[in-house]
Design goal:
9-stranded mixed β-sheet, 7 helices
């Protein structure tokens, strides 16, 4: 596993939410659940820090929007989802250094099959809290470019935060085989999209550049970094970005809920110029981002 994404023994005896509280060791979904049958589910990753849920409302809104786009029936309200999250955290006395995986499946089917009309029992809400550190640490990460291309909206819209992650997993397998931390994924036209797990930015001559959110998820951390850049007076370009531009950038970093801003050391064996430590623009963004996301956190 990459960096600090290791199992924590403190998680073994926790309780989780599967349409209600249940011991983690006993938690399960039916073999007829849509997540098992076809990866038919949506999800979010939520970070809990010093008694606050970071970007809670934004995560819940995206979860519900994704479920709506997939025509789920009886989608729980934002208040119901928040109550399930907080109930699970309180039951475990968890308030810091926690990652919460929130999954909403289409629910259990009456019989095996693809047709959503077989889902007549309502959705399954799963809340899985775990003690988990920031997955990339502070020492920087290495990327390789995957041969697998990122889905375009003509194949499967990345704006639906769905559980069918095989596109990303295939790219991650390539990174594992190459001994890299993650894989950079290109879109169908050969421009950079994102990594298998995060959004990606580069810095050139003080300007911040990131791929347009066409074949990539418009991530919540990505969105906040763009807002922070404007606060700091940093010029931002959202456009098609070639792989060579990333090879020759002054700084490269990734963004994600459980990685924050992680600086990239090299891509495909090309060393990023300012990669011995986090570069000056990345550092400035990281500092302000950490303050803004904390201030906007929802108290547990």
């Amino acid at each position: 596993m990459a960096k600090y994404n290791q199992p924590d023994p403190r998680n073994l005896n926790t309780v989780v939410w599967v349409n209600g509280l249940v011991p983690r060791q006993e938690a399960k979904v039916s073999v007829l659940d849509s997540s098992v049958q076809g990866g038919d589910a949506v999800w979010e990753g939520l970070r809990i820090l010093r008694g606050r849920a970071l970007q809670l409302n934004e995560h819940i809104e995206r979860l519900r929007n994704s479920a709506h786009a997939l025509v789920f029936d009886s989608i729980p309200s934002a208040e119901e989802i928040q109550a399930a999250i907080f109930s699970t955290l309180h039951a475990n006395h968890m308030s810091d250094g926690v990652h919460v995986r929130i999954t909403l499946t289409r629910g259990m089917k009456t019989t095996s099959g693809m047709d959503p009309r077989l889902n007549t029992m309502g959705p399954t809400l799963i809340v899985l809290p775990e003690y988990k550190g920031m997955v990339y640490g502070n020492s920087g990460i290495r990327l390789i470019t995957a041969s697998v291309r990122r889905n375009s909206p003509s194949c499967l819209d990345s704006k639906i935060h769905h559980n069918n992650l095989l596109n990303n997993i295939l790219a991650k397998i390539e990174a594992n085989v190459a001994g890299a931390d993650d894989a950079l994924m290109l879109d169908l036209d050969g421009f950079v999209a994102e990594t298998n797990a995060t959004n990606v930015f580069c810095v050139k001559r003080g300007n911040l550049i990131t791929p347009t959110p066409v074949a990539c998820l418009p991530g919540l951390t990505r969105k906040l970094v763009l807002e922070v850049a404007q606060l700091e007076g940093i010029t931002v370009e959202e456009r098609q970005v070639s792989l060579t531009e990333f090879y020759t950038a002054d700084e490269v970093f990734t963004t994600g809920t459980m990685g924050g801003l992680a600086h990239v050391i090299e891509i495909d064996g090309r060393r990023i110029v300012n990669s011995e430590s986090m570069g000056p623009v990345t550092s400035k963004l990281q500092k302000t981002y950490s303050q803004v996301i904390w201030e906007a956190g929802v108290p547990l």
